[in-house]
């Protein structure tokens, strides 16, 4: 809250309103007056207030109706939960009480002494502050339960931990990059947590989960009542919900060009309007982004706007795949073992040395998430005290890392030739179109590779230059 609480005073009796307004200003409030319920709605649509005081009896729209509209029906641009104090003459106390049933915080009679009025207003404001704070504490609590420790002894993870700590006092935007399952969301939550007790909530949006532009935009911007068919109440968007906190935009590369443009504008202006609205609302949150694509590549190929790229890519943190920091496998495995043994109420199990070796040599294409899932299954399914290499296999770890043997035929079957063509192409791509390396990846001879390449007509521009013989 600002140092001077902003009050909207709604009162049709002009003389009384001006007098009370002046008094409240002398008591340190900022006061704006609306001479009637309808005028109040107009004022509320263009500015926000910390508190509303409304007369109960007014000719055009009375206090009770005003409260009902704000709280229940919603009005474009008007915050539904702003605290409201009813103002009554002594003979309308019953109505004032009815106002409280509709959600007013208190009622004051017009005969009250000035100190009494000020006290009641301060109480209402304090109540609201506590309510917001409670909501925030509840969020924090919920998050700290799901917030895992961030495990890792590799240089890369140590460095990232240090970066998280260094960034804790700054609200700079951060982008987290890395393959699926490396821990991008975990790092985003850690960044949010370390911002400390004054921060608002952690709000996340998965840009890939929302199929079309209008959905993602109404999710981010919110909408006014009646903005589109089905919008029967005002809804705050994630930009607003993340106020003073962090907005985590996950899988940012999946935004359409159109939504990318909209986001760019918000990042540039730091303001936005709800869909169907006109009021500019300030964005007051820290942005955290994540992607498992190479965003620079996406920009070069034109799928991601270059101007947005530079707005998003301010402070990148790259989390390497687990196979490039094998020293993290053991501590992670130990951590997940004790975590899941506790969760499933089992005595803590150990890994037999050969099982441990298997874990160390596995490629972990699903990264930490894959390791976590396998350990969870092991804890549930492995019968003995010690987890064996055989247990690993029966829980889905590849027999021989990097070789097939665990490919499971899907129920609907496969098209073997197509699969062969697919795998050959993938191997070539991964090997940078080097046929020898690609053949190694598939465990076949170069000759056999060469015959697949001809069979499926696979070719790469670079072969034209270097190996014209392949292009017969
Ligand atoms: N260093 C770590 N220490 C402990 N747990 C971790 C670590 N890294 C990842 N995890 C756990 O692994 C799982 C996957 O992590 P997370 O969801 O953060 O991955 P991600 O990079 O966001 O993946 P995706 O791109 O698929 O969304 C989570 O359960 C997370 O808690
Ligand atoms: Mg994620």
SSE blueprint:
Blueprint: E1 6-10, H1 14-26, E2 30-34, H2 37-46, E3 51-55, H3 63-73, E4 84-88, H4 93-101, E5 106-109, H5 114-146, H6 155-166, E6 174-177, H7 184-193, E7 202-206, H8 213-221, E8 222-223, E9 235-236, H9 238-241, E10 246-250, H10 257-269, E11 271-272, E12 281-282, E13 286-291, H11 295-300, H12 306-312, E14 316-318, H13 329-343, E15 350-351, H14 353-361, H15 367-381, E16 386-387, H16 389-394, H17 416-430, H18 435-442, H19 446-455, H20 461-466
Parallel strand pairs: 1-2, 1-3, 3-4, 4-5, 6-13, 6-14, 7-10, 10-13, 15-16
Antiparallel strand pairs: 8-9, 11-12
Bound molecules: adenosine-5'-triphosphate and magnesium ion.
Q: Quick check: average pLDDT?
A: 87
- Please report the distance between the alpha carbons of the first and last residues: 75 Å
The distinct ligands, each listed once, are: adenosine-5'-triphosphate, magnesium ion
Q: How many β-strands, per DSSP?
A: 16
Write the CATH fold name of the largest domain: Rossmann fold
Q: What class would the helix/strand composition place it in? A: alpha/beta
The CATH class of the largest domain, by name, is Alpha Beta
Spatial sequence of strands, sheet with the most strands: 2-1-3-4-5
User: How large, in whole angstroms, is the Cα Rg?
Assistant: 31 Å
Give a written overview of the molecule:
The protein has 472 residues and is of the alpha/beta class. The chain contains 20 helices and 16 strands. β11 and β12 form a beta hairpin. α13 crosses α15. The N and C termini lie far apart (75 Å). The C terminus is likely disordered. Magnesium ion binds next to α7.
């Amino acid at each position: 809250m600002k140092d001077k609480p902003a009050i909207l005073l709604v009162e049709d009796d002009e003389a009384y309103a001006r007098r009370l307004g002046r008094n409240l200003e002398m008591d340190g409030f900022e006061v704006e007056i609306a001479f009637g319920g309808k005028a109040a709605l107009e004022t509320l649509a263009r500015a926000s207030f910390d508190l509303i005081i409304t007369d109960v009896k007014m000719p055009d729209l009375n206090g009770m109706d005003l409260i009902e509209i704000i709280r229940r029906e919603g009005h474009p641009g008007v915050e539904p939960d702003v605290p409201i104090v009813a103002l009554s003459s002594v003979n309308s106390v019953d109505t004032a009480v009815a106002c409280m049933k509709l959600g007013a915080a208190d009622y004051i009679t017009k005969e009250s002494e000035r100190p009494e009025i000020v006290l009641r207003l301060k109480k209402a404001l304090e109540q609201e502050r506590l309510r917001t704070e409670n909501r925030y504490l509840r969020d924090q609590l919920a998050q700290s339960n799901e917030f895992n420790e961030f495990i890792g002894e590799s240089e890369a993870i140590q460095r990232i931990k240090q970066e998280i700590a260094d960034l804790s006092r700054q609200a700079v935007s951060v982008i987290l990059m890395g393959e699926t399952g490396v821990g991008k969301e975990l790092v985003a939550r850690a960044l949010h947590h370390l911002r400390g007790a004054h921060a608002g909530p952690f709000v996340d949006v998965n840009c890939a989960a929302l199929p079309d532009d209008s959905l993602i935009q109404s999710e981010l911007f919110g909408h006014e009542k009646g903005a589109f068919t089905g919008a029967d109440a005002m809804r705050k968007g994630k930009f607003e919900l993340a106020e003073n906190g962090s907005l985590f935009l996950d899988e940012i590369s999946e935004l359409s060009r159109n939504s990318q443009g909209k986001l760019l504008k918000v990042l540039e202006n730091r303001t936005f309007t709800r869909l169907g609205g006109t009021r500019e609302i300030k964005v007051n949150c820290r942005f955290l982004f994540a992607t498992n694509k190479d965003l620079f590549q996406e920009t070069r190929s034109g799928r991601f706007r270059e101007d947005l790229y530079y707005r998003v890519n301010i402070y990148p943190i790259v989390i390497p795949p687990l196979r490039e920091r094998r020293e993290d496998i053991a501590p992670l495995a130990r951590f997940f073992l004790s975590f899941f043994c506790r969760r499933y109420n089992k005595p803590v199990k150990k890994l037999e040395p050969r099982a441990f070796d298997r874990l160390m040599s596995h490629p972990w294409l699903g990264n930490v998430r894959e390791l976590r899932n396998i350990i969870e299954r092991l804890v549930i399914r492995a019968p003995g005290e010690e987890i064996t290499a055989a247990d690993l296999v029966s829980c889905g770890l590849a027999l021989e890392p990097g070789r097939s043997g665990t490919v499971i035929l899907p129920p609907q079957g496969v098209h073997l030739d197509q699969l062969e063509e697919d795998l050959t192409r993938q191997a070539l791509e991964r090997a940078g179109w080097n046929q020898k390396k690609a053949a190694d990846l598939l465990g076949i001879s170069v000759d056999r590779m060469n015959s697949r390449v001809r069979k499926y007509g696979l070719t790469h521009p670079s072969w034209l230059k270097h190996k014209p013989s392949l292009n017969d």
